[in-house]
């Protein structure tokens, strides 16, 4: 039977054992990575009231978005609900007059809330909490808000001077790089990138399409390109001492990936999936 309390060791064995897809308490566990990291290092000496509670924390963990843990748990219905909320936020933004379409901290927090409403994760800008994503350690303290404000201004400028997928790739990288929230940064970054593509008329604020867009990043070939693109952009930005404005070539690989995922063929496939559902 299922124990009433799980130690972290048990969560580690349960969540990361390889070779299976399994369901428990309406949670689905699926393989994402290669199992090199120990979940105990991420969660510490925690105790959980149920497997579902443990998996909820694992699902919300930023460690997944850095590709550091091999399993993720998805609550049934959460993915479509999140996509619906995010698509609604994108649609509301696109209905604004063009001169009022500006990225801001408030808008970024709204997209984050749409992604994380089913969790206890705060949508406030991270302050003193430190996080580590692979070999990258995002800033902490006042630097987080300063860099996030700089991101909004830089993305607004790039939006009007760069080609669509370069601007979207810049947003995708920057949010992951600065990690303004304790968790949910990957989902928020993808939402903002998708918003930029929608604003250019190359995608629509359709919940099934947005849900499929998010899901594609969990596919092994796509995820490898994604993680590689983020890492290369981190290195180029560091070499340039983060001097703004960074050139579009900083995020070249991510731009190519977004062109692939937002191609008319891929968008058509997304629409077909949504109709079938």
UniProtKB/TrEMBL annotation:
Which keywords label this protein? ATP-binding, Nucleotide-binding
Taxonomically, which superkingdom? Eukaryota
Start and end residues of each Fido domain: 103-260
- Which Gene3D superfamilies does its entry note? Fido-like domain
In terms of Pfam families, this protein maps to: Fic
Active-site residues, Swiss-Prot/TrEMBL: 179
Do the record's keywords include Iron? Answer: no
Query: So where does ATP get bound?
Result: 183-190
Q: What is this protein called?
A: Fido domain-containing protein
Q: What is the protein's species of origin?
A: Haptolina ericina
The taxonomic lineage of its organism, from the top, reads: Eukaryota, Haptista, Haptophyta, Prymnesiophyceae, Prymnesiales
